[in-house]
Amino acid sequence: MENLTVPTMAEMLATGQQPEVLFWVGCAGSFDDRAKKITKAFVRILNRAGVSFAVLGTEESCTGDPAKRAGNEFLFQMQAMMNIEVLNAYEAKKIVTACPHCFNTLKNEYPQLGGQYEVIHHTQFLKSLLDEGRLTIEGGQFKGKKITFHDPCYLGRANNIYEAPRDLIEKLDAELVEMKRSKANGLCCGAGGAQMFKDAEPGNKEVNIERTEDALETQPQIIAAACPFCNTMMTDGVKAKEREADVKVMDVAELIANAQDL
Amino acid sequence: MAYLDNIFFVILLALGGGYFAMNVKKLIRNIKLGRDINRTDNPSARWHNMALIALGQSKMVRRPVAGILHIFVYVGFVIINIEVLEIVIDGIFGTHRVFSFLGGFYSFLIGSFEILALLVIVAVVTFLIRRNIVKLKRFIHSDLKGWPKSDANYILYIETVLMVFFLVMNAADYHLQLLGFGDYHHAGAFPISQFIQPIFNGMDSGVVMMIERAVWWMHIIGILFFLNYLYYSKHLHILLAFPNTWYADLNPKGQFDNLESVTNEVKLMMDPNADPFAAAPPADENAVPQKFGAQDVQDLNWVQLMNAYTCTECGRCTSSCPANITGKKLSPRKIMMDTRDRLEEVGRNIDANKGVFVPDNKTLLNDYITPEELWACTSCNACVEECPVNISPLSIIIDMRRYLVMEQSAAPMSLNAMMTNVENNGAPWQYSQQDRLNWKNEN
Ligand code: SF4
Ligand code: SF4
């Protein structure tokens, strides 16, 4: 078993410490098999960089994002207020998360309900570690590889974050190739707005297939994602296109962790 | 008798202006049927948006061909209206080219109007070709069946005709100027219409003058007609684009509003000290409890209703919508068009019933927009990003989902299961909250 150091806020409090940043793992990051790998990759980087962080562990609960996008404002606000109570009790100041949906909700929709934090996405956090010299990235196995980046809607259009993940990919000495629809014009993977949890309405194609085709058009070796849901959708798309042997879908945090052989 | 023309002109102007004012009043009344929402914060950012997006057309050029041609039409339209001012003054006072005392500057103005008029014709003809011959996908989409399709073409025809009138009027005028006929003193420069002018060669000057007068009248009548056509057309955007961009949401696109009515109830539910029986008596005994979400146009806020009137039906939203691209019924353009159609219907109902709305057993939900459309949205914001006049079809979709879920419990089964999980175990899947940190020790 590998040695991950993952303190909880409760443990920290017991020893009278306040971490630099609270890592909000999110439901996908906690339970989804694919997303758990992203969570661990991110933790490995945090451990390597010596970042003092903590998770809420069993005190974390869904941010309420899927409920809100589905139209259930009651459930959303109940979740939000419960989480805010916990976060405020720990006097959380800065929160980092690898899920753009959690990121958006915590950053934009919690403040009015009493939850005021500095919320950043893990790609922004990794970028800042890099800029501050707390983390060094070498291309390693990704040197010269063709990587295309799929913009998560809730990171890109929703919050105008386009550059942090791209800067990180470029630091790997990889060749970043853009899809014809990218950044503000990026096409959704099909999971947002609670679609992840239901069947699609009748149509003539699945959204993730359309998007995977965009990605495959760039002839990439790796499709980089920065959202656990996009990751699932693109992975399924690559499978449906029978390309899983030569195209991998990886989170930006995984790219960096793997490049360092973490 | 000499004043007959002037009197007739003033009557015409009053009729055209009066009818327009009446429609504007109706427009404002209909928009005010929406719920109140405060969108006056941060005025400097709002002026900036308006200057950039409405005046500067910054979002139009994301699609360069249409964007640049549209700028021709837009600039042409705005600038040529300076000419209309002259026409109005001439019409009222019986003068002829009253601004010609500006001399060289006047020549410059008229000359540039002519060039713009030609550019407008080029652009408009290209637009007609794109719509009717090339048949761009977003223009032959099923949303536009019937009136919207004709509407778009009518506007382009009217614009062409108006520009042709303008050039013919100048050509005839120029011809008479060359002859030194009557009142037609030397004024203006005619870089384009000088090429039309020769068709009058050999024609009786009296006839040419009649043509000049006739086209002059038709030009102004055409403009008054156009002004009054706006209310019935997607062309309303030439006016509403300005307030619409000013009042647009300034928050990050991912931020959905938190319903305040819900906040109050949730706070009460969560507060252990709250006395459930003392629970907030409604301030006004007769107050109708506010519906959660939107079932009909009156449940939307006024900015959403203004959005509907502003929609240009350009279909940029729909052509970038992942649901629509993959063949789902959802089309964000249709969401806006339906909202406007229903709002108009409600407005007519109010007109017919002496100022009060009589329920007609119809609602925006179901009679216009079906749940199937609403549930296909991924909330990706592509439509909002694309819209050249900052409309948010997404906000209407979410408000209607709220109604479906909170008032009718009519979410798809699988979403209900997801929500039950969130409620019971704090995750959209059936995992226990106690297992949230298990990943730490798994391999
Ligand atoms: S937010 Fe919804 S309606 Fe708008 S483009 Fe995305 S899926 Fe389509
Ligand atoms: S909502 Fe905006 S993008 Fe969509 S059709 Fe109307 S004006 Fe065009």
From TrEMBL, chain A:
Domain Cysteine-rich: start-end pairs: 21-107, 147-234
Domain of life of the organism encoding this protein: Bacteria
Keyword list, A-Z: 4Fe-4S, Iron, Iron-sulfur, Metal-binding, Oxidoreductase
InterPro entries tied to this protein: Cys_rich_dom, HdrC_iron-sulfur_subunit
Recorded GO MF terms: 4 iron, 4 sulfur cluster binding; metal ion binding; oxidoreductase activity
Keyword Metal-binding: yes
Gene Ontology CC: plasma membrane
Pfam families reported for this sequence: CCG
Keyword field contains Protein biosynthesis: no
Name this polypeptide is given: Cysteine-rich domain-containing protein
TrEMBL record, chain B:
Molecular-function GO term, any one: 4 iron, 4 sulfur cluster binding
GO CC annotations on file: plasma membrane
Membrane-spanning residues: 6-24, 65-85, 105-129, 154-172, 214-232
The 4Fe-4S ferredoxin-type domain, residue ranges: 302-333, 367-397
Keywords in alphabetical order: 4Fe-4S, Iron, Iron-sulfur, Membrane, Metal-binding, Oxidoreductase, Transmembrane, Transmembrane helix
Gene3D superfamilies per the UniProt record, alphabetical: Alpha-helical ferredoxin, Transmembrane di-heme cytochromes, Chain C
PROSITE patterns attached to this UniProt entry: 4FE4S_FER_1, 4FE4S_FER_2
UniProt signal peptide: none
Pfam families: Fer4_9
PANTHER family referenced in this protein's UniProt entry, alphabetically: IRON-SULFUR-BINDING OXIDOREDUCTASE FADF-RELATED (PTHR43255:SF1), IRON-SULFUR-BINDING OXIDOREDUCTASE FADF-RELATED-RELATED (PTHR43255)
Identification of the protein by name: 4Fe-4S dicluster domain-containing protein
Highest classification ranks of the organism: Bacteria, Pseudomonadati, Bacteroidota, Flavobacteriia, Flavobacteriales
